[in-house]
Amino acid sequence: MKMTGRDSKKKLYALLQSIQAAVVVHGPGTEIITCNKAAQELLGLTEEQILGKKAIDPAWNFCNEDGCPMQLSDYPVNRVITSKKVLKNFIVGINRPDKEYVTWGLVHAVPEFSSFGDIVRVIVTFMDITELRRLEAERKEAEKKVHERSVELAKSNMMLKEAQKIAKMGHWEFNLQSNALFWSDEIYRIFGLDPQEFKASYEAFLDAIHPDDRDLVDQAYTESVEKKKPYDIEHRIVLKNGEVKWVREICATEYDKENEPSRSIGTVHDITDKKLAAEEREKLIKELQNALSEIKTLRGILPICSFCKKVRTDDGYWEQVDVYIHKHSEANISHGICKDCMKVQYPEEYEAIYSKSV
């Protein structure tokens, strides 16, 4: 049975409707000749509303990828008619009045020519990529946030390193499962070690501790893990060049679901300057106490006038002996008169008192 032109159109129409992608067929004047159901759903219009419309029709409200309104000359069908070339992977935004968001389509447009080389129709297919665009936008936003966060972390890490360098304080982390020990840059500086040459481990850490403090530190850490209590101790370390430093170490341990120790974290603070300052302060205090002690006991040479018996002060003034002694000692002065002086100054009283005792 020979197929008529009408039957051929029906078959073509049925085939068109079976295609999942949105298909719109334009005539040479951009008027729409036919479309399938998928195109109606994508554009948000009925077949009656679509057929016959041209590209210039205000019903079309297309936009570019940046969201700006698309120029009429950039509409897919107009691009093909102008260039007479196939259009591939062209993204079009469709502003539908019934939706608050833009519907995005990936467009392919193919021209068909007559035997004279004229365009007789343009077949335009749309693939709905709205969800893909949304996911892509979310991915880019996530990547942006990750990048921003990475920049912030890098900046924070740099600031932390600078702060630790200024404060002479570093941090460490010890994995009790793998026996791996991590040191921050500042701890390497405190211990006078090169990260490229020194492999941090608990045993290596103990080796750097002053021999007299090694057992103390090891015991403090062991008891801290067993008793599940942080520790805070001060101890000495010995650098490769023999220099001795004082450090303050604070540590706490984390435990897994089985209540087994899994990770210890802590800080090391170089307190050498503080210790030296404290020692110098104690030395000065002792020297001052010794000086005061000498003053209280009136040690040394006292300049006394040979005639009036006054004492010369550090300021160059002359004071009575009793006044000077009272100022520079803890003694309380009481005045009296000796036997010899009484005989000279008060002879009658002397005779009255001492003649009876003879």
UniProtKB/TrEMBL annotation:
EC number in record: 2.7.13.3
Pfam families to which the protein is assigned, alphabetical: PAS_3 (PF08447), PAS_4 (PF08448)
PAS domain ranges (all copies): 8-56, 175-228
Protein name in UniProt: histidine kinase
GO molecular function, one term: protein histidine kinase activity
Organism in which the protein naturally occurs: Candidatus Electrothrix marina
Coiled-coil boundaries: 271-301
UniProt cross-references to NCBIfam families, sorted A to Z: sensory_box
InterPro entries: PAC, PAS, PAS-assoc_C, PAS-like_dom_sf, PAS_4, PAS_fold_3, Sensor_kinase/Photoreceptor
Catalytic activity from the UniProt record: ATP + protein L-histidine = ADP + protein N-phospho-L-histidine
Keywords carried by this UniProt record: Coiled coil, Kinase, Phosphoprotein, Transferase
Top-level taxon: Bacteria
Matching PROSITE patterns: PAC, PAS
Domain PAC: 88-141, 231-283
